[in-house]
Amino acid sequence: MVVGLQFLAGEISGGNARCIAMLQAFQESIKDYSTPPEKALFRDLTTKINSYVSFLIECRPLSISMGNAIRFLKTRIANLPLNLSESEAKANLISDIERFINEKIIIADKVIVKHAVTKIRDGDVLLTYASSSAVEMILVQAHELGKQFRVVIVDSRPKLEGQGCSVGLLERVYAGWHGMCCYGCPSVSCPSLICCEAYKFHERVQLDSICFNELGDPDAVSRDYTRKEINSLDGWANSENLQPLNLIYDATPSDYVSMIITDYGMVPPTSVPVIVREYRRDQLWL
């Protein structure tokens, strides 16, 4: 699948973008699918999807949101009525995928924006880390509503997805899911708000930033391309006692999160398990 190679090359990044690209690739695969003789569609198609998923994992580990979307698709395949023709079954699956993208990602982001802009006041100084499509939409919408505020974008190597850095008085910290770096906020009574679509929720408990993380290229952290005069780690591969560690994500304890803004409203971190438990089968999975 071409999309897997795009993940590997970093051409498609970000939780929502990767999930949408994967689901659209599944749509194309389903369109071209034909059930082999002597085989059942739901069994054979599930096997095909599993092979595609294995390839995607080889290119880059799946995000939690992608895993949830795959689970949704497999559930839809397993629940297909046996009396449907192949063309009808394929049309249903393609429609289900399209609905998932629209309702759980696109419309969900619009709902998040609607909730989040109510927390922005005139004169606020907002801080966000790196780049988040949801946060971007929130800031643009707040500006279009005529709200007067300043934005600080904190960036870091090696990806340098954001721009700028500032030290000053903050009223709010906004971060997208996969960008929960707000450890200092409680000490100065500064609320940290996380923007996260509900389809990214998971029952998994993560105790540290080592397990379930993703390893990046160690060369990316050993070199500072913005300051070429710093070369103390050149040739690190020849050292037996040195191994640079480039973790893609960080884990933020719930104590450091003031509120999570989702398509189900604004909830405290303690309410996430409730949403997963009560809405997963019915609302969350359409």
From TrEMBL:
GO terms for cellular component: cytosol. Keywords: Cytoplasm, Initiation factor, Protein biosynthesis. It is found in: Cytoplasm, Cytosol. InterPro entries: IF-2B-related, IF_2B-like_C, NagB/RpiA_transferase-like. Pfam families: IF-2B. It comes from the Eukaryota. Coiled coil: none annotated. Belongs to the eIF-2B alpha/beta/delta subunits family. This is Translation initiation factor eIF2B subunit delta. It comes from Sesamum angustifolium. The lineage of its organism: Eukaryota, Viridiplantae, Streptophyta, Embryophyta, Tracheophyta.
